[in-house]
């Protein structure tokens, strides 16, 4: 008995207990009378006899058991991943039955039980994936394969009866908004890189420049995003009214211009400070050797300093990318476009699933961006090690 | 020949190097020795213009080094430092190829040179060339550091405490290898060190510095026999000088004829190429007042007695 207890994985046990409680107590889906009114929770007790749940439940149990008692990581990762996929399938299949004798505007939306399970199973997978210590590129590939499996399920129409997907089908411009979201992120980060990296190098070389620049950038960082948008609206709309030509190019008080400018300003601090930190951390012996062998300043910069400072600089880029993907959503409020548009429309209409249609892709984009940069950092660090 | 003429470098009011004059002959190893902060590294860096002198000149083969841009000058001078400073993101091969690439050598020429250098440093090309520096031991890294400094066939190599961070055994082995390589290539080396043993072991000429000034320059033997009072004589060590003197000479030069002693089969032997210090150590260890001296082929070519060693290590005068 003791030996069994000793073999118990504490994190696995905690997550398993939490998952079980969630599955039993919280509603997996809600049955709403229409798009806006809150509905009634539907728990597992009303769903479990359905065929698709008969497939999900045993696998779910297996996943929890292996998370708790097994030290073998691959089964843990695979089974929790498979359990989540089966849950998605089971919920999709059950919607038709749930809606069978409901009025035409009734909807099935995802309940708190589903979101909590998504989180808990996600934690189990991440934990196993981290402990497996897979090389960076295969890890990225695994995540990509898993995400595309989920997307294939969604694209197959399995969830088309679920409120979130109904909202998706109502939005013709969903993918364009995604493109615009990314465009705003790139449009603010690229100029920030072009200006921030040289500025960071200047900060590294001159303590006076550093003392002048970094506090200003830190101050900018403390301005809340909505306040920043507001602050920028005034000068930009003044500019636009005094020079009508500018507004032809989209420089107006609302819309993309203040959003881009604000995001650009926010991006500067992480890029500048991480560039400076990356250069500060270079081994003086390496720099002295480079100089003593006759490399000129440009050769030292491109062949030695930049490649060696790159991992730290990339971790600055990671901060900026995830931060800006989130902030672009806020820019939806001032008409900047992107997924934030859905969030604010949804809030206005009290349509929770429209809010989710804006939130989920934003989170997913930030997650993918962070993963991609992590992979790059791991690859560049392996280069230098 | 390298000539440092009235070389001075001030940092603010502080004179790091004060009116230094030094000549280093071609093909010599010259050790600049002193405590930290004595100006030896500053002096070295003025030779490849990492630091510009406040006044005075440096001539290499009669030509003022200021006549050419610093980068061009440095590419002609080998440079090896403490901490090595290998580029961690580049392989051993690429590290060695650094200066040849800066000089625009063809890839065939570079390839041949890297092979040649690794062979010279007794490192197997296939197992080392494509490793990253972090996969090497400290001694291997320093070897690659030397190979990199030698890559473009410099006539002069500057070394700033190159072996400072190594364990004593590795250090001694690398010092011997460096000496062999230097004799083989006939290059001039100026070496900064704070280790008098290292200076004695390697250098043809030792320049002792303190407080930015050159106190004495002499051959190791002269320095040990007649050190100037004060700093220099402290540096070369009071009583230990005897052992250091013995370590300067090889047995072959001073051995006695074998016939003067009754050597038998149990008499311990020592190679003629070993130093007198090694001989004394072996005599004490083996409790044998006489050693048989053997040549390269193992034949007895002489003998050396403790009596003779004692007289050779005596205080001069």
Overall description:
Chain A: It holds the Pfam family BPD_transp_1. Chain A: Its main location: membrane. Chain A: It is found in: Cell membrane. The complex is a heterodimer of chains A (385) and B (317). The relative contact order of chain A is 0.09. A three-stranded antiparallel sheet of chain A has the order 2-1-3. Chain A folds into two domains: 2-169, no CATH class; 174-384, MetI-like (MetI-like fold, Orthogonal Bundle). Chain A is flat, with a radius of gyration of 25 Å. Chain A starts with a helix and ends with a helix. Chain A has 385 residues and is mainly α. Helices cover 77% and strands 3% of the residues of chain A. The mean pLDDT of chain A is 89. With 317 residues, chain B is an alpha/beta fold. Chain B folds into two domains: 2-238, 3-Layer(aba) Sandwich (Rossmann fold), CATH 3.40.50; 246-312, CBS domain Like (Alpha-Beta Complex). Helix content of chain B is 38%, strand content 24%. In chain B, 40% of the residues are buried. The mean pLDDT of chain B is 90. The A-B interface holds A 283-296, 299, 304, 307-308, 383-385 and B 48, 50, 70-75, 79, 81-89, 98-99, 102, 132, 134, 145, 148-149, 158.
User: Helical residue percent of chain A?
Assistant: over 70%
Q: Can you tell me the CATH class of the largest domain in chain A?
A: Mainly Alpha
CATH superfamily of the largest domain in chain A: MetI-like
Number of extended strands of chain A: 3
**Largest sheet, strands/sense/barrel of chain B:** 6 strands, mixed
* C-alpha-based Rg of chain A, rounded: 25 Å
Overall spatial form of chain A: flat
Distance between the termini of chain A: 46 Å
Looking at the overall shape, the CATH architecture of the largest domain in chain B is: 3-Layer(aba) Sandwich
Transmembrane segments (chain A): 47-69, 81-99, 105-125, 137-159, 179-201, 213-237, 249-269, 354-379
Domain ABC transmembrane type-1 (chain A): 178-373
Membrane topology (chain A): Multi-pass membrane protein
Protein name (chain A): Osmoprotectant transport system permease protein
């Amino acid at each position: 008995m003791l030996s069994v207890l000793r073999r118990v994985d504490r994190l696995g046990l905690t997550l398993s207990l939490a998952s079980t409680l969630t599955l039993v107590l919280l509603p997996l889906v809600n049955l709403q009378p229409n798009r806006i009114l809150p509905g009634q929770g539907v728990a597992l007790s009303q769903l479990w006899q359905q065929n698709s749940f008969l497939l999900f439940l045993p696998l779910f149990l297996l996943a929890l058991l292996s998370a708790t008692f097994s030290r073998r990581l691959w089964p843990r990762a695979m089974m929790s991943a498979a359990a989540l996929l089966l849950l998605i399938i089971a919920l999709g299949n059950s919607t038709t039955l749930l809606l069978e004798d409901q009025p035409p505007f009734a909807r099935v939306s995802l309940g708190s039980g589903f979101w909590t399970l998504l989180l808990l199973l996600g934690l189990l997978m991440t934990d196993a994936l981290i402990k497996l210590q897979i090389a960076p590129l295969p890890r990225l590939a695994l995540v990509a394969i898993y995400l595309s499996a989920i997307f294939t399920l969604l694209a197959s129409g399995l969830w088309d009866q679920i409120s979130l997907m109904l909202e998706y089908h109502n939005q013709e411009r969903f993918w364009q908004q995604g493109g615009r979201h990314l465009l705003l992120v790139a449009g603010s980060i690229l100029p920030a890189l072009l200006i921030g990296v040289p500025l960071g190098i200047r900060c590294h070389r001159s303590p006076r420049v550093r003392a002048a620049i970094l506090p200003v950038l830190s101050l900018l960082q403390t301005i809340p995003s909505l306040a920043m948008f507001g602050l920028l609206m005034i000068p930009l709309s003044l500019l636009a009214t005094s020079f009508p030509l500018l507004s032809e190019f989209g420089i107006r008080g609302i819309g993309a211009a203040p959003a881009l400018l604000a995001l650009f300003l926010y991006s500067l601090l992480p890029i500048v400070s991480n560039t400076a930190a990356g250069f500060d951390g270079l081994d003086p012996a390496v720099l002295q050797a480079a100089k003593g062998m006759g490399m000129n300043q440009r050769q030292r910069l491109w062949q030695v300093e930049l490649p060696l400072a790159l991992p730290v600089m990339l971790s600055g880029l990671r901060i900026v990318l995830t931060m800006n993907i989130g902030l672009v959503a806020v820019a939806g409020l001032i008409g900047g476009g992107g997924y934030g548009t859905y969030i604010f429309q949804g809030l206005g209409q009290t349509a929770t699933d429209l809010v989710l249609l804006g939130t989920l892709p934003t989170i997913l984009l930030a997650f993918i961006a962070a993963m991609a940069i992590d992979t790059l950092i791991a690859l560049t660090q392996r280069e230098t090690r | 020949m390298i000539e440092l003429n009235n070389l001075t470098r001030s940092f603010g009011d502080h004179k790091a190097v004060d009116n230094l004059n030094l000549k280093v002959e071609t093909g010599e190893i010259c050790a600049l020795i002193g405590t930290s902060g004595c100006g030896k590294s500053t002096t070295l860096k003025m030779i490849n213009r990492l630091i510009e002198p406040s006044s005075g000149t440096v001539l290499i083969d009669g030509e003022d080094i200021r006549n050419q841009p610093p980068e061009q000058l440095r590419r002609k001078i080998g440079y090896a430092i403490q901490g090595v400073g290998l580029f961690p993101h580049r392989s051993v091969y690429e590290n060695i190829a650094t200066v040849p690439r800066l000089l625009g050598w063809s890839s065939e020429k570079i390839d041949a040179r890297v092979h040649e250098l690794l062979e010279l440093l007794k490192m197997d090309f296939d197992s080392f060339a494509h490793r990253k520096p972090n996969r090497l031991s400290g001694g291997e890294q320093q070897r690659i550091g030397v190979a990199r400094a030698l890559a473009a066939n410099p006539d002069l190599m500057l070394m700033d405490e190159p072996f400072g961070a190594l364990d004593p055994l590795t250090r001694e082995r690398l010092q011997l290898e460096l000496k062999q390589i230097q004799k083989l290539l006939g290059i001039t080396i100026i070496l900064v060190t704070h280790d008098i043993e290292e200076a004695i072991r390697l250098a043809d000429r030792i320049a002792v510095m303190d407080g930015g000034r050159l106190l004495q320059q002499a051959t190791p033997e002269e320095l040990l026999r007649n050190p100037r009072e004060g700093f220099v004589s402290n540096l070369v060590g009071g009583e230990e000088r005897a052992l250091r003197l013995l370590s300067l000479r090889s047995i072959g030069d001073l051995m006695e004829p074998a016939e003067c002693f009754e050597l038998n089969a149990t008499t311990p032997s020592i190679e003629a190429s070993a130093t007198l210090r090694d001989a004394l150590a072996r005599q004490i260890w083996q409790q044998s007042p006489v050693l048989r001296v053997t040549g390269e082929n193992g034949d007895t070519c002489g003998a050396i007695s403790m009596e003779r060693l004692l007289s050779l290590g005596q205080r001069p005068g």
